[in-house]
Amino acid sequence: MEYVTAVPDPRSPAAASARAGRRSLAVALLCGALGAAVALLATRQRWAEGTATVAGGAFPLTAKGSDVTGVPAALAIVGLAALVAVFAVRRAGRFLVSGLLALSGAGIAAAALVSASDSSALDEQAAKASGDTSATVGALSHTGWPYVAAAGGVLLLLAGLLALRYGRLWPAMSGRYERGTARPRRAARPVDPERPEEIWKALDRGEDPTGA
Q1: Per the UniProt record, which residue ranges are transmembrane (predicted)?
Q2: Rounded to two decimals, what is the model's pTM?
Q3: Which of 2, 27, 111, 201, CA to CA, is 20 to 30 A from 135?
Q4: CA 211 to centroid of chain Cα atoms
């Protein structure tokens, strides 16, 4: 006698696809959440420092990542939203959102690397501090935080690439949360004409107790 089981063979292609989907999902969630957090944290740190000559003395200046460029922080928020939205859409929508997630990570990395040696924010501070619009910062130095932000962008990029490759295997939100999905109404119970309380309840629900 042969027995039929609903458990797939661990060596079957379906089981292998399921394992790949679970692993890629876990890695994408970890990389996406960690990448966005790292990028946001890095933009709040000091990226550059220098001095401005004020009244014959050296005035220290510092610039945070958000002072240098607002692109990494903005794209980190976009990437985090895209990571969540991946599970709210299906098919072509999931592919587009996954692409947005990958582009957000790439944009963070590119913006952070381009701004790693930028001095415009400190030059503006030097001009304000000295009262000379042509003043520039001196003794300029940069920290490693721009590269930390770039690493966060790479993690988001990896999450987006995983979503593009394996997103079709990932679960989606239940259909009851999708817009336009109406819940089926249960059929009304026949009203017993010999029970006045049921007649009144039917009238309260807007139903015709006579069944006409």
Answers
A1: 25-43, 69-88, 95-114, 144-164
A2: 0.71
A3: 111
A4: 53
